[in-house]
Amino acid sequence: DTMAVGAGDGFDERGVNTGAVYVYSATGPGEWTQVDKLLADDGREYDDFGGAVDLFEDTMVVGSNGMFLPGAVYIFTYRSGRWSQSQKILPDDSAVDDLFGQSVAMFADTIVVSAKWNAERGYRSGAAYVLTRKKNERRRPRRVGSIPKTHGRRCRRPRQFRVFGGHRRRHHRRGSVQRRRQRPRERIRLHLQAEQKRPLETVSEARGPRRGVQ
Predict the structure, then answer these.
(1) What are the pLDDT digits (tens) for 5-56?
(2) Whole-prediction pTM
(3) Distance separating alpha carbons of residues 59 and 108, to the nearest angstrom
(4) Do residues 156 and 204 lie in contact, with contact meaning Cβ atoms separated by under 8 Å?
């Protein structure tokens, strides 16, 4: 079993708030041992790398909302006994202070990324982006629409794959934690099909009035 712990406010020789993700492996009942520390290949100050993190089988998605910079999402894959960065994803309409990567959720071949302060439909109206796997690669983000200001803080998956970690006020700006679980492929496919038929509200967790949902 594997657990990833994001530390978005971490700092090192590259500067303040560069961030990191610490990877732990279960070594016994209730015992975890650190096996890796992940950094963005192009990390810099105020990236907030690790502010959001999620795991699914051999793939890890890490949010880096950028704080005062355009945010990004990093994909890591587990091969030959180690995690390595395989892709960095930026939205086509990225802008400073959008907080793209504020929260992330991964399920099978689909990733949902929130941009809490995206202003496409008004000041900090927010948006969610959906990424899908294609021919062993990931497409550029596809925005699924603008959502109310109370949305975009945390993405959701089916109940048995709950995402831990969300709006930083709930975590005292300390990052997020995610533990990897594996499910049979057949069961995963059924849940994914069910999710695709649900309305937009399922990709974000409401925290206030749901006015303005298209």
Answers:
(1) 999 887 777 888 899 999 999 998 989 999 999 999 999 889 999 999 999 9
(2) 0.68
(3) 9
(4) yes
Share of the chain above pLDDT 70, in %: 63
Determine the Cα–Cα distance for residues 99 and 197; give it in Å rounded to an integer.
Answer: 27
Residue extents of the structural domains in the chain: 2-203
Q: Residue 66: what pLDDT?
A: 86
What are phi and psi for residue 95, nearest 5 degrees?
-145, 155
CB 112 within 8 A of CB 98: no
Strand ranges across the sheet with 2-7: 31-38, 20-28, 2-7, 177-179
Please write down the HEC assignment for all residues of the chain. Answer: CEEEEEECCCCECCECCCEEEEEEEEEECCEEEEEEEECCCCCCCCCCEEEEEEEECCEEEEEECCCCCCCEEEEEEEECCEEEEEEEECCCCCCCCCCEEEEEEEECCEEEEEECCCCCCCCCCCEEEEEEEECCEECCCEEEEECCCCCCCCCCCCHHHCCCCCCHHHHCCCCCEEECCCCCHHHHHHHHHHHHCCCHHHHCCCCCCCCCCC
More confident residue, 165 or 59: 59
